[in-house]
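Milestone M4 deliverable, item 7.
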Amino acid sequence: MADGRRHIGVAERRARLALRHRLAPSARATAPEEVADSLVALHGSDPATVYLAVAARLADPAKAVAATERALYEDRTLVRMHGMRHTVFVFPAALTAVVHASTGLAVAARERASLLKDMAGAGAPDAAWLAEVEAATLAALARRGQATAAELTADEPRLRERFVYAPGKSYEGVHTVSSRLLRVLGVEGKVVRGRPLGSWTSSRFRWAPAPEHPELDVAGAQSALLERWLRACGPATEADLKWWTGWRVTEVRRALAAIGAREVSLDEGTGHVAAGDEDPVEPSGEPWAALLPALDPTAMGWQGRDWYLDPELRPLLFDRSGNVGPTVWWDGRVVGGWAQRPDGEIVWRIPGGGVAREAEAAVAARAERLRAWLGTTRVTPRFRTPLERTLSA
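Output delivered:
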């Protein structure tokens, strides 16, 4: 371009995605830790997403459940915790201190203040009382190693206390101290979700003490996280970075400057890549198909998605809150969606067609591979989307 910035077009962005997100056949991983490291984080709001996202990127998806459970609950090389945008993710253990300092501290302060405000408004006990309950709860969890909220309540009965949330409002409700306090402790990095009650699709988790990690400088942690993300997902616009991190735009700009990020030209305007990542990336020459789960980190990776998602598909694939459902990919772009029926069949649809027979055959093969891998397991996304509801009926 006239201003000297290199232009990165759609084809190159899709080539980077295929290789760095381990979706091209030659880029498949051998372990869940490799997948999480390549993507920076796996969405964990829906427990099944973690395993399905890993399986879609492993050379041998049959290893996904056992290997991911071992990484999460035995080796602790992966940790499920709150992160960007106050969302639950699974991170590489080595990244937990960076995530906590860069995104968790500010959210934690707001969460604790909100809890104390709600309790005070309901005439519940004060901060000193809550501090006693918190200390007793953490001590009980340390003794047990991991525990459900009910088990912790047996050890610390004050967790059963209830208070009215938003009295007089249309959304008025009753909260227990246990539900709100454990959430606050999770955001503060004092507890993490442990092994679930039930199978890998269960959303009923035990709690466990958070692994110890150093306290990092906030600005330094933000720079470290942004650089990791750019190397996995760059190029990206400022809007992408602000949305993904949940930071203020001033924080995004400060981190970009600190890591020496390079400006590039994108079809939608100015983008950024990490220093030293400006060299062209050529398509691998191996067309690929993938069936990615609801909330997959690739589908949810950017705020601006037109380069890999036709805007006409959005009403079919997203719910009203912006959560993506299961998606069908062909060679770097979303072409449709999929679902699992009650009998276990994997069904998919490419609305409007527009793909070659080669693509349809590759998608069908991935669908059959997914059906065989899931076996008797049934997966229903936590956030239902229009096309997924239609296909699964």
